[in-house]
Design brief:
Blueprint: E1 2-9, H1 13-24, E2 33-36, H2 78-92, E3 97-98, E4 103-108, E5 116-120, E6 123-132, E7 154-157, E8 171-175, H3 179-189, E9 194-199, E10 205-206, H4 212-227, E11 241-242, H5 245-252, E12 258-260, E13 264-266, E14 269-271, E15 277-279, E16 282-285, E17 310-311, E18 314-315, E19 321-323, H6 332-351, H7 356-364
Helix pairs in contact: 1-6, 6-7
The protein binds flavin-adenine dinucleotide.
Length: 368
């Protein structure tokens, strides 16, 4: 069995930021910490995003700590740009990322030594602490609707979206109120026979700038839910939809017109509560994601409300475990800060005698 101080699960923005800070704080790559990632290549979830999501179209990607992302071609897929950048980052800072390694379960070692056992597709690790940085991409959320199994067309989720070509000539219903839904809709409308945009709540378009004040307010909203032990909403979901020139045009062209949620799917399309129907060949669910944390289930970290309560990044129910890129830190800037906070907290927790845990808690709560 492999033995380390800290196992970091996930090598996206949050995991790499954590690894960078652990390294700076003196944890030895390999013996002091490892990063385990199930994906085949560097890039975190970015490597799986659709090719038409070019780097110029992502909104507000923050560089990882210690190395800028310079001279990126805005017309290149973000999957490639960020994949290359993360690969270079891992090399530059000599970060011990092992892939593909799927973490299947984390449990208490149960031998009174305070350790954790990390069960993976590449064997077992024993760790004194764990930083979970697994994002959300591996847990797409598909709402359940009446008639879903009767629909004879195709149903896809954002995770399967590979660009508009597959929708040429089709009648497509796009479900979801986030940026991904809008981007899919605008692309698909160029080639489809017809598109219908459906959201549960009326979308909030932002025409004002989205600055630091608004960013902090959005984070605070997510944080409040997590503090109450509820499952987090994504930060992006509380920021509203920034209105772009392309969106303005799509509105004028009648593409970006929102319809309320349908009552059910039928074999040939969707039906609304007032009885009107829209025929469809494909329903594209751009309905978001949930935290990919099933492997933490044996630790019983969840509150009765279904969420995991954290103090900063540290889990209330188990101080050996930190969640980064979770809830309020689920943005590239949040992930950077959370990684730093978790690393500092763990250094204190693992290198100092017990009373230092109180100091660690203070640092961990200041990740913002
Ligand atoms: C379409 C889309 C566009 C976005 N655009 C932006 C943007 O422009 N700006 C912004 O700030 N944020 C954006 N976000 C949010 C953003 O992606 C994140 O905040 C940030 O990149 C997530 O980093 P992360 O490290 O938390 O997760 P991820 O990048 O998802 O990395 C998680 C890693 O963990 C691995 N993993 C998962 N489960 C396991 C397991 N059990 N065992 C081992 N490894 C595992 C995954 O393979 C992955 O490599 C976007 C999100 C989406 C869905």
């Amino acid at each position: 069995m492999n033995s380390v101080d800290v196992v970091v699960v996930g090598a996206g923005q949050a995991g790499l930021s954590t690894a960078y800070h652990l390294r700076r704080l003196g944890f030895e790559p390999g013996s002091g910490f490892v990063v385990l990632d199930r994906a085949p290549r560097p890039g975190g979830a970015w490597q799986f995003r659709w090719p038409t999501l070019t780097y110029g179209r992502v909104h507000g990607m923050h560089a990882l700590p210690g190395m800028e992302l310079t001279d990126a071609d805005p017309d290149r897929p973000s999957a490639e740009v960020i994949g290359d950048y993360f690969a270079e980052y891992e090399r530059a800072f000599d970060l011990p990322v092992l892939r593909p390694v799927h973490v299947r379960a984390v449990r208490d070692a149960g031998d009174g030594d305070g350790g954790l056992l990390v069960d993976t597709s590449a064997g077992e690790w024993r760790a004194r602490a764990l930083v979970n940085a697994t994002g959300t991409w591996d847990r797409p959320f598909w709402p359940r609707v009446r008639g879903q199994e009767l629909f004879r067309g195709r149903q896809l989720h954002t995770v399967q979206y590979q660009g508009p070509a597959a929708f040429a000539g089709e009648r497509v219903i796009v479900v979801g109120g986030g940026t991904s839904a809008v981007q899919h809709l605008l692309e698909i409308a160029e080639v489809a026979a017809a598109t219908t945009w459906v959201t549960r709540r009326p979308p909030v378009f932002r025409t004002d700038g989205f600055g630091e004040v608004e960013g902090r307010a959005a984070v605070a909203m997510v944080e409040e839910r997590v503090r109450r032990g509820l499952p987090p909403r994504s930060v992006v979901s509380v920021t509203g939809l920034p209105m772009t020139e392309a969106m303005r045009r799509a509105r004028e062209d009648g593409v970006l017109v929102r319809h309320p949620m349908f009552a059910a799917l039928t074999p040939d399309g969707a039906v609304w509560p007032d009885g009107h129907t829209v025929p469809a060949d494909t329903v594209l669910w751009a309905t978001g994601f949930r935290a990919a944390i099933d492997h933490l289930a044996p630790l019983r970290l969840r509150e009765p409300g279904g969420g995991i309560r954290v103090h900063g990044t540290r889990v209330d129910r188990d101080p050996r475990v930190h969640l980064v890129g979770y809830g309020p830190s689920a943005s590239t800037i949040g992930a950077n800060r959370a990684g730093r906070a978790a690393a500092h907290d763990l250094r204190i927790l693992l290198t100092a005698p017990r009373p230092a845990a109180a100091e660690a808690a203070v640092i961990s709560s200041t990740w913002r």
